[in-house]
Amino acid sequence: MKEIKGLFGKRIKELRKNLGLSQEKLAEKAEISSRYLSRVEMGQHFPSIDTLVKLANALNVELKDFFEFAHETPNARELKETLDGLLKEADEDKLRLLVKVVRAVVR
């Protein structure tokens, strides 16, 4: 989970910088504290769904855009490690769904 928090934080920072916003300005637009936003960007905290929605609105993105950080993982080994970590957290139903998705993508 720590790795996901770090990637998520980097993605928020990337989206913020793409808009030319400071942490203070984004925090103000999202109605959260700049200190909390800093901790999110550093991967120390993961926001609640309510805060995710506020950040998405402030950044003018969809929620799914926050999780498009595969480009941050530079090589196949790290991608496999990320997948391995996610698989360890998944329950049986999610694993079944993931197998179907992976089969569809690979084929």
TrEMBL record:
Keyword annotations: DNA-binding
Cited PROSITE patterns: HTH_CROC1 (PS50943)
Record flagged with keyword Coiled coil: no
Domain of life: Bacteria
Residue stretches making up the HTH cro/C1-type domain: 12-66
Keyword rRNA-binding recorded: no
GO molecular function annotations of the record: DNA binding; DNA-binding transcription factor activity
Official protein name in the record: Helix-turn-helix transcriptional regulator
Phylogenetic placement of the source organism: Bacteria, Pseudomonadati, Thermodesulfobacteriota, Desulfobacteria, Desulfobacterales
